[in-house]
Write a structure and sequence with these properties.
alpha/beta, 3 strands
């Protein structure tokens, strides 16, 4: 509708979502086990609500021990890169509660046999500058070709 004033928002019930995720994991663990929490940014309202719900759900299950929290910033790569050293220093856990699916993938796939079979390994530090250089070269080349085509009136 043209010129119709409106405000829209689609959200989720973060508390309920996290409670149900935690309860599902705890049922699969038969009410016993050590669990790592992977949260979003510490200043994110959604992350705070989800982590509080994870803690509330764990309080209802005396056999569940929350071993620690890793801040994954709602990013797959950050969750992966911060969880691996945590696990190396603290040992294995029976389950992981991640505040979103992307972080869960970042944590689970590299630590599973699937990650090894896919060849998932940490990227070398040199990867990032080379990626930036490649993108810069692409942008310059694209601009040069566009200018050349414009001078010839082909576009």
């Amino acid at each position: 509708v043209p010129n119709a004033p409106c405000v829209t928002y689609v959200g989720s019930d973060d508390t309920r979502l996290a409670l149900e995720a935690a309860q599902t994991l705890f049922r699969h663990l038969h009410g016993r086990g050590e669990v790592l929490v992977v949260s979003g940014p510490i200043d994110s309202v959604t992350s705070v609500e989800r982590v509080h719900a994870f803690l509330d759900a764990a309080e209802l299950r005396p056999g569940i021990v929350l071993k620690g929290t890793v801040v994954g910033d709602y990013r797959r790569d950050v969750a992966r890169d911060r969880t691996a050293p945590w696990l190396a220093g603290h040992g294995r856990v029976d389950g992981v509660l991640a505040a979103n699916d992307i972080m869960a993938i970042g944590v689970v796939i590299p630590l599973s046999p699937l990650g090894d079979s896919l060849g998932l390994t940490p990227l070398p530090l040199l990867y990032w500058p080379l990626l930036a250089l490649t993108l810069l070269c692409y942008l310059v080349l694209t601009q040069l070709v566009k200018m050349w085509l414009l001078r010839r009136n082909w576009i």
